[in-house]
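Hi Y.,

Following your request, here is the sequence exactly as I used it, all 430 residues.
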Amino acid sequence: MNSGAQAAAMNFLNEVADEFPSAISFAAGRPTDRFFGRLNGAALLDAVARYERHARISCTQSKHGPNLLQYGRTAGIIGELVIEQLASDEGVHATPDRVIMTSGCQEALALCLPALCPDKRDVALTCNPTYIGFTCAAQAGGASVVALSNKVVSIADAIERAVRELRRIRRRPRALYLIPNFDNPTGRLLDERQRKDILDICRRERIVVLEDDAYGMFQYDGEPVASMSALDQSGCVIHLSTFSKTVAPAVRVGTLVLPESLFGDQDARKSLWKELVQRKSFITVNTSQITQAIVGGLLLQENRSLKEWIRPAVNWYRTNRDVMLDHLKRVFAPISTRTWWNRPAGGFFLVMKVPFRFDADSVTDCATKHGVVVMPMSFFAFDKSQDHRIRLAFTCVDPEQIRIGIEALGDFVASRMGKWGNCRQQATVV
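Below is the corresponding structure, written out as tokens. Let me know if you'd prefer a different format.
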């Protein structure tokens, strides 16, 4: 996946709905619009007013509190409320001097990568496939990215192999990007043992883990796994989260939480915090105080937790996932030995294997001739290992669209396979 392909794929993700407006889209990993009505104009104004009242009472610097229309504190103004929410909802504990409010998780990546990998010999590691936004942020910040080997089952073992290979060419892995909860694009959930093994090798090799937890609150099956930040005993995890999925993408508010100490060194952590704040002042000056106030007002309304707020969305997404799985099983029964898909325990995506190479041209054919848009996994990969896989997002559609879309996807796959078309028709008649 070269830099041009990464940028093109990122643009495709952002613009796919406009490119094929009449097609059902399983491409974009967006939250559903159906609950945005709770944040109508009046509700947004109420949230801002609620936060302003809270700020006037709690502010020690001025009896008036922050002026939301003015430039604000670079590190943010709602850190203390977010700290309570992170502790309540995700088991992540922090102090104000370790928190930076960012313009979404994307800015957090853009801040961290050049700070952690300042030298040309420095490398950021990631899985293959991985979130496109990470590789684009690395490219924009001048950080080199190396993908972990897919030939090693254990991520921890793959990290060890990468460290050995990089040392031979005098390169230094300084960061590891991971989405341990319901990964984008694979939907994978890392269990506690896997997380501890990764933390152990990162501690030994002094590799900072960038834990992207955009989807952790959207769990549909099983018990939650402790975050890597909560499991971190050595100070090697920077926890990244966003309100784009839990509140709304338009607020563009994210959170960056540094460990108490960086590999046991509190001065190093303080120095990194100052550097990140300075970098942010160069890039965005500060995250919008109005959108921070919206998030802060909502947190005050919801008693510093978003679990109940997102419950309707969680139930909707679980239903959509199950509907998609049911229709995949029915539609693709005639070629069940030649296709495969996973059952994610949470998140926004599942992955499907198809019997042919699914590329950008396939996306266009599938959208224009069959009316459904999917994402090739090759867009997220560093090699050809994902060429026969697609990512299906199930959050921003309804059950009827899923039914129609999976039927359309089946028609497209049938048209590409030729003989299977007759088999599928016969199976449908029966």
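DSSP finds 14 helices and 13 strands in the chain.

Thanks again,
Q.
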